[in-house]
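I'm stuck. Protein, please.
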Amino acid sequence: MVTRSSPNVVKFPTTVKAVIKTNTAANAPVKAKDYYIRDEMLNGFHVRVRSSGKKTYGAESKMPKTQEKVYVSLGDINLLTEKEARRRATEVLLKIKDNIDPRIERLASSGSQKNLLEVLQEYIASRESPLAPRTIEGYQYCLEQFFNPLSLKPVATLRKEHFLDWYQLAKKSPAAAQKTFTVARTLLSFAEAMGYIEDNPAERAKTIIGKFKRKHSIKPFIPFNELHKFLSAYTQCSQDEVISHTMRDYILLILVTGFRREEAQSLKWEQVNFEKKTISLPDNKAKRYFEIPMTHLTHDLLKWRFENTKKSNYVFASNGRTGHIVEPKRAFKKIADKAKLSHNLSSHALRRTFATLCKELDISLDDSGKLLNHANRNVTDSYVSRSLEYQRGLYDQVIRKIESRVENTIDGQKVYGAYNGFRVFFYGADEGWYSVELEPDNEDYWNA
């Protein structure tokens, strides 16, 4: 604040007008802030003097049609004479006057004419560690659905103002805005590294925008006190064939194993080993070979599908393009509507339910992380070997917890508990296994 008694505040001008001559740039003093010396003879020609001491010749003007400002750096004053810089500035300014963007021409040979969708393809091909197909689809979807028409502009023409204007509209959907912005910023960093652009405009825009504001949404899962409603609706929809056998089995498999959606949907019979009683997931999000033991229930489920469904490479086959089921939304909606749940159902909600049940059973974070195939929590964990039998016991605990919430009516009274009920009523297991009370496992585990 300036008062009568305070000293004068010196404000450095951001622009100085002069006729740029041979020694003008060399003699220009370095100040605390960047400033421009703008030529009085050739409008748009200038010298930029940075606070760091670097001095460059440049040219700028507006595109006639779009009124977009175009800035072109001509080169360091130590590499160009004033005469050569003036000649280059004249060429640049004439092109802009003819509505030709010199930035694209200047960097055309290096790829700056590529748009973000084209840069994405190059980014994918350049990675030593390949991206998962679903990740690639997600990147493309973000650019095509949330970043048009900017995703089609040459990367050399993108400016921070484009991102700021786009964000004002996109922030109505904060999660999509943040993800899309991150994708664009990553691709522009790649373009900068490849020499297609001089700097990343998304980085500058992010500094101005600051931290993205996101809505704190509750991640859905089935609480234990509502699990009986889900199980009743799921069982009824399965018995009445409101949902198909394929959806019945897919939903149950995720609920009792915590598989990711992609892992279950694309499961192949070659990954199922009935002799070893294991299921392997060689390609997964954790990027490591993963093998889990079958339980009574998962064994009978898979055996029933192998013997009673159309032959296919996939466990959950479909007539669609992929050859396997893709989107179970309709089946989940039918169950959720019947159960009158307070939230929507999804494959990931069942995975979260599995994780929550592990927590309620006091299964350690390391053990539950192993069951869910999370990335190693620490280096030591990668040296810890957990036997298949130990893991099988953990999965069985979760299954028993789930079965304990199945509703029954005995002598007119509602009770809970239907152990091995899914095996008996869905997959043809011996009725002697069915019980309304938890009983110890039979030693003849697989042949009963």
About this structure: The chain has three domains: 15-100, 116-209, 224-433. Residues 16 and 37 are 5 Å apart (CA to CA). The radius of gyration is 32 Å. The longest strand covers residues 55-62.
